[in-house]
Amino acid sequence: MTGQTIPAPLPYQPSRTRTDLFSALFRAKKEFGADKTILVDGDDRQLTYKDLVQGSLALGSALRQGTKSGEAVGVMLPSGAGAVIGFFALSAFNRIPAMLNFTAGSRNLKAALKAGQISRIITAHKFVELGGLEALMEELSGSAEIVYLEDVRENLTLANKLIAAVGSILPGLVRKQSRYKSPGVMLFTSGTEGEPKGVVLSHENVMANVEQVRAHIGLSPDTDSLFNPLPTFHCFGLTVGAVLPLVAGIPVIFHPSPLQPREIVRRIRANQSTILLATDTFISQYARIGNDGDMSSVRLAVCGAERVKDETRALVRRKFEIEILEGYGATEASPVIAANKWEDNRPGTVGCLMSGMESKLLPVEGIEDGGRLHVRGPNIMMGYLRPSNPGMLERPEGGWHDTGDIVAIDDSGIIRIMGRVKRFAKIGGEMVSLAVVENCASAIWPDNLHAAVTLPDPRKGEQVILLSDTKASNREDILAWAKNHGVPELSVPKRVYHVDEIPVLGTGKIDYGAVQKKVEALLND
Question: How many domains in the chain?
């Protein structure tokens, strides 16, 4: 988009972070007006701040029966009004929403329930039916009580409705404000590196990240609207895709799944959305499928969860004049740690740290330019919960979170991600980034997915195996490309296999645990 006025970022205001999540929603209702349309659901139903606040209070007053203050309650719903109202309904009455990944499988979900001591899950009949999740819910019903929102709504009492009416004007009469340093939400890691861990974020953690992003990227409640197809069980989809726009007065258009590119580009055009949340994988699909004008209203795409490829950046800029701001985060950081800025966008990097954060790099053997990133700040989690020690919070030592990522930071504070510590191979004493291996393949076959993993090698310590979903993939082309572009031959995989499909998690990230099993099965055939 050309000739547009770019809103200036707000100064970071720590005072705005010292509140609970429901109170922040209520504050936004007063700031922007009870009748402002702030949420558009997947079926294009529009909700105002008044609708959200009253709906949350009515539902929350009903849902608190049978649970106690400070208890975690599972939320298993797609992105949309149901998930948002369910989240704030629990939060309003000091229950902790535990956002459950319905794509994780019953084993990981049961481990999450155990870690968080969750004995109740709220979901919806319609969602279970459309998602074909009947068998999963049947299995989970042995571990937790399943509560369906349609049933709760049908049985709302006069008292529930009175609480909503009174509370939407004077919330202090019907609810007790939560301490901002108390647990505000529970999310779960993907479980690809062992059992999933619960990540407990305080109200202040989430609100700090909301205010950090507002201080980093200019947003306008008058001209912007945000399109969010990402799941609320993923921290990026929850904090940046739901809490941020609601708190900042930015209308948010939800879509229940990121895997419907045709419908998504149609709805972006219909709603004239100006900001899009995505991952590299998803936005490249939307850009390829979108026709001229479909995404021309979008001024800014904020991408995280995986590296943005040069090919993706070039495609969306050429076809729709969309600027991609790449960011970097972790659930443990609520989630945004760093991001590029509109006025200083540096492709190939993830920009600089959010306001109020500090970092340190620990040396890694074999890596000269960079180190293992540790971060500290107001958005860093309260701690982990593990299935092996249910309910016992493991706090980060000294407030520092070990990201497990190897990064380089230049003199101006710009961060370049080199890869996860576990995503390096040691070949003949040299450290080889598996991300670089994948990038070589992506440069040759940009329309396909590629995933590299390591296996033991009796001679060189480790070997790199690449899976690709293109039949054209082969080692010779990668070797030739590497030689022409000055990439060391060690970054060329020892073997390349074509597979019909690369396993992907519900968050859009490659499922490396499943890729590893595929590679081992291929070699054992």
Answer: 2
Asked whether 111 and 196 are in contact (CB, 8 A), the reply is: yes
The answer on 377 and 486 residing in a single domain is no
Question: Is 6 a member of any domain?
Answer: no
In this structure, are 25 and 103 located in the same domain?
A: yes
**Residue type at position 103:** T
| Amino acid (1-letter code) at residue 362 | L
**Cβ-based neighbours of 76, under 8 Å, separated by 6 or more:** 100, 102, 121, 122, 123, 127
Could you tell me where the DSSP H helices lie in 278-326? 280-289, 310-320
What is the chain's alpha carbon radius of gyration, rounded to the nearest angstrom?
23
Instruction: Classify residue 420: in a domain, yes or no.
Output: no
Provide the domain limits for residue 35: 21-356+364-386+404-409
Residue 233 belongs to domain with CATH number: 3.40.50.12780
Pairing of the two strands 389-394 and 358-364: unpaired
Please check whether residue 5 lies inside any domain of the structure: no
Residue 126 parent element (H or E): helix 125-131
Tell me the C-alpha to C-alpha distance, in Å, between residue 154 and each of 54, 59, 84, 160.
Answer: 16, 11, 19, 12
Q: Does one domain contain both 304 and 198?
A: yes
Phi, psi angle pair for 492, to nearest 5°: -95, 125
Tokens of 491: 């970054």
The residue among 311, 249, 245, 246 whose CA lies nearest residue 277 is: 245
Q: At what angle do helices 81-92 and 49-63 cross, to 10 degrees?
A: 60
Q: Is residue 113 part of a domain?
A: yes
> From the first residue on, what is the mean pLDDT of each consecutive set of 10 residues in the chain (525 residues)?
67 93 97 96 96 96 93 96 96 96 88 95 95 93 95 94 92 89 93 76 97 93 94 94 97 93 93 92 88 88 83 86 90 95 88 95 82 95 94 94 91 87 71 82 88 80 87 90 84 89 77 84 80
Residue 161's φ and ψ, nearest 5 degrees, are -70, -35
Q: SS in 3 state form for 352-399?
A: EECCCCEEEEEEECCEEEEEEEEEECCCCCCEEEECCEEEEEECCHHH
Q: Kindly list the distances between the CA atom of residue 76 and the CA atoms of 9, 37, 207, 372, in Å, as whole numbers in the listed order.
A: 34, 25, 22, 34
Cβ atoms of 451 and 515 within 8 Å: the answer is: yes
- For β-strands 367-376 and 401-409, DSSP reports them as antiparallel
Q: What CATH number has the domain bearing residue 501?
A: 3.30.300.30
How far is 19 from 22, CA to CA, in rounded Å?
Answer: 8
pTM summary value: 0.85
Could you tell me the maximum CA-CA distance found in the chain, to the nearest angstrom?
A: 74
